[in-house]
Each structure stands twice: as structure tokens, then as C-alpha cells.
Protein: 2-keto-3-deoxygluconate kinase
Organism: Halobellus limi
Amino acid sequence: MTDIVTFGETMLRLSPPRGERLERTSELGVRTGGAESNVAVAAARLGRDATWISKLPDSALGRRIVSELRSHGVRMDVAWDGSDDARLGTYYLEHGGEPRGTDVIYDRADASVTTATPGELPAGALDDASVFYTSGITPALSQTLGETTEALLRAAQERGTTTAFDLNYRGKLWSPMEAGERYESLFPHVDVLVAAERDAATCLGREGDAVEVANGLLRDFDFETVVLTRGESGSLAVHDGEVYEQDVYDAETFDPIGTGDAFVGGFLAKRLDGGDVSDALAYGAATASLKRTVDGDLAVVTAEEVDAVVERNAGGISR
Ligand SMILES: O=C(O)C(=O)C[C@H](O)[C@H](O)COP(=O)(O)O
């Protein structure tokens, strides 16, 4: 039995040392990042059985991704692209404090994963998975991946697997209108929707009171659960007629990239462990806050650390 299967692109992330500019640096640190594998890593590190499905170039770069994800306990079902022009997507990340901000440059067009079809993906893990997760980044990458995303969500749903989807809007990949239309076409195959409040406003035109936005989405698309992430204002979920709210836990931020994925990984890991929606929100928020203290996209955390954040903030003192 697999607890969670995720599907999407994983890239190499290349960053200059802190304080250096991309246009001047002679050094780039290499890390691994991709929304769906970030979620798989968080879930695996928190004790769940997680499998990531994707397509990778049959090269040292593809093998690098596999060895990094495996080192965190993620299982993989990968279609290998042996063609001469097989590509691994990369992204450049320049960390900048205020007023510069952090900037991302993608170099991911025509990556091997963009041609992945349901027929070639070894998706056997889906047969007995409890949860299938993918995000709005995946269908943004190509027409083929849009179709494959829908086919996998459908297949998971037909097998009785709970499907979870984070909008994860990326304005460098498509317009709000294109994204909104695609999201809505996928919603009939989604049980658990995760949406940043700003993505719901930008792409779906859902603005106003957060509880109303979440309830409106739940009602209009018949989701089982809607989770709205609200940055500094915390998160909330609607499920089974109840509203649950969660504050953010303070964090000294070293690297904010991957916070949203850590939240989703923590949330789903707790639900898979039998936690209720309220426990899962707390667990997601704690995983996200710990991630912010760690360099790289991945939530390199332990279940004990996550429990400690939740307990300390529930009034306990760690002595
Ligand atoms: O594929 C992409 O375009 C990505 O952006 C991959 C990102 O590294 C993560 O998805 C981080 O996203 P957050 O957790 O929201 O910080």
C-alpha cells in the first residue's frame, strides 16, 4: 500500500552564494526542486510511504534527481528519456533581501517531462495509493502534460484514491485566464483543493472574505476539503460543514522557497496518519515554518521537530 503518489516535474535549482548576483557569480550551488517531489519528500520524511512519478533524461542529471529524492526515502516510478535531446529543466534562483527580493529564472522549456504520456509513465503505484497529488504547475508545462495530468487524476479517482491539487499559480508559465480555465477543467477530478488566497483571486476571480471564498469553491466544485493558504495570515480549511483556522508559526527565514509545498506535505502526511483537518493544518503550518529555516526547496525536517513546534505553540514548553 502506498500512502501518497505525486506526479510532476523536478528541476535542478542553481543559485549563486548569498549576496552575489547571477550576472556576476562564478559559483552556483546545485539543489533539487519541484512542487510535487517537494511534497513527496516532506511526506516521506514525516513517515509516509511516498512515490514520485515523472519522466527524466537518461543521463547523469536525471540520475542526480533520483539519488537525491531516494536519499529522503521517496520511491520513484520514472520513465527514462533516452533521446539525444533529452533535457532536465533547471531554474536559477537569486536570493535577495529587501528591497531586491528573490528572483527566479526558468530554463525548463522542452524538458523530458513535457512529453510524458499516461501510457509511458510507470504509474502502477497508483493502483493502491491512498492519495494522489499534483499541482497546477504540471499542466502549465505543455499541452501533453495538461492531458496527462487530467488522465492521472481521473485514473486515481476511478480507483477510489483521494486526489489532492494545489493551484500553485506561476505567472512566468501562463496567464491567469489560461490557468483558471485549465484548473476548472480539472476540478471535477479533485477531492482536496489547496489554494493560495492570492491564486484564487488572480486565476479564479474569488475575492473577499476567506471563509466565503473557501466555502464558495467547496460548494461550486463539490470538493471534499478546501484549504486556503493566506501567507502571514495563516491558513484555513473547510470540510464537512466546519471551518478550521490556523496561524503561522514564527520562523527565522533562511530560504522561503518550498514553504507552500512543505505545508501541503505536512497537511497530507497528517491526514494520512489519521489526523483530523485541524491537526493536519497545524502539522502543515509547523512543517512549513521549519522549512523556512533550511536552505533549498526540500523540507529536511523530522516528525519529532514538527511535533515539537506544534506542542510548544499549544502552550507546552520544551525542556
Ligand atoms: O516548478 C516550479 O515552478 C516551482 O516553483 C518549483 C518550486 O521550487 C516549488 O514549487 C516551491 O514553491 P513554494 O512551496 O510555493 O515556495
Summary: Residues 33-35, 38, 137, 170, 257-261, 297 surround 2-keto 3 deoxy 6 phospho gluconate (CB under 6 Å).
